[in-house]
Amino acid sequence: MTSTTTIPRTDLDPYTDASITDPYPVYGALRDIAPVTYLTSHQVHCAARYDEVYAALHRHGTFESGEGVGLTDALNKAQKGSSFTSDPPYHAYVRGLVARHLKPRAMADITGYVTSWANRLVKDLVERGSFDAVQDFAVAFPLAVVPDLLGWPEDEGKERLLEWASAGFNAFGPMNDRTRAGLPLLGEMSEFLHRMSQPGNLRPGSWGAELVSEAREGKIEDKLLPGLLGDFLAPSMDTSVSALSSMLWLLGEHEDQWLRLKEDPSLIPSAFNEIIRLESPLRGFTRHVAQDTELGGARLPRGSRVLLLFGSANRDERFWKDPESFDVGRPGVAQHVGFGHGIHACVGQALSRLEGQSLLAALVRHVGRIEVSKPTWRLHNTIRGIERMDVTFHGRAS
């Protein structure tokens, strides 16, 4: 594409209440304007098409994460140093401390545990009949699994984990009422994570306790512990809740695809990817432009910031065939950017996949039909997710 010095300016805003409730018209309009636009409402460049989002995610030396990945400078500074707000070579070190527990071999060790939980939850809900997709299914599962793996104490913290994770993700958006409302929760989360970083507060043998022990042995810097525990917490909770509730909605709304999945359970990995593509849990993150560069033919100056809209890229008609449809066997669906991509791809995606695929398998095994009501969508800066939706499981005939 020929380079241009003019980037179209637009007053389209993906962070209004209306845009958050139904983001796809705004995403489509942004894609149609140009490969890169300038959002006057937030004074940031924006890439909404697949090719540009994918390219930026793989040019981490130019599109940096170490200066923060949100829209607000003050909060970007406060959140620096985690695995997804850092750059190489430090990034490889800090990410490796978390990723070792989330690699395929580690997932294989906990597959039986996660599968058992999935079967238990689905069978209980079949017996119950009707329930809320979010609290009774999407929240119940990761809240049962993740804190246990991390070793959180049974008597404190667990009931607040989702609120803290939600506040953390809200802070990557603009400094609006949603972000401001979550600031006190961020303080609570920080205090809790610092307390859990002290020896004896996490269950012996857990992932979290292992990190604390390594810090005591001098293998990890003490100051990294709260951030590392937070790296486990936030990505494995709120995004999973979003994906799991969207799973029920899409399968309930598309009975033909549900029947197809039941007839061919080998499609489960593809189906989970398609859920993440079509209803991407993460709206997107920003990147700091480290040097004068071009993206999609647009010249971006050093020091500027660009918002990469994952949820828009995953519906880009320039890349995907019939992108608005739900297809559990979609060819090439693994190319989605719903978990990010490149060196900053979601470190917890292996756990999210294990959770999602285990629940899909349990649904296929125990549920005949999924009946859903119209969902109410959350008003959240970064997470695309359902707030409430009534569901009825009709048991599978033996």
Description:
- With 398 residues, this protein is an alpha+beta fold.
- The protein has helices spanning 17-21, 24-33, 50-57, 73-78, 90-99, 104-128, 133-150, 161-170, 177-196, 207-216, 225-253, 255-263, 268-278, 310-313, 349-366; strands at residues 9-10, 36-39, 44-47, 63-64, 130-132, 284-289, 293-295, 298-300, 305-309, 367-372, 376-377, 386-388, 390-395.
- 48% of the residues lie in helices and 12% in strands.
- A hairpin with a 2-residue loop joins β7 and β8.
- The mean pLDDT is 91.
Write the layout of secondary structure elements.
Blueprint: E1 9-10, H1 17-21, H2 24-33, E2 36-39, E3 44-47, H3 50-57, E4 63-64, H4 73-78, H5 90-99, H6 104-128, E5 130-132, H7 133-150, H8 161-170, H9 177-196, H10 207-216, H11 225-253, H12 255-263, H13 268-278, E6 284-289, E7 293-295, E8 298-300, E9 305-309, H14 310-313, H15 349-366, E10 367-372, E11 376-377, E12 386-388, E13 390-395
Parallel strand pairs: 1-2, 3-9
Antiparallel strand pairs: 2-3, 4-6, 5-13, 6-9, 7-8, 10-13, 11-12
Short description:
With 398 residues, this protein is of the alpha+beta class. It has 15 helices and 13 strands.
Which runs of at least 5 residues are low in confidence (pLDDT < 50)?
Answer: none
Indicate the overall shape: globular
Tally of separate helices: 15
Mean pLDDT: 91
Summarize the main sheet.
6 strands, mixed
List keywords for this structure.
single chain; 398 residues; 6-stranded mixed sheet; 3-stranded antiparallel sheet; 13 strands
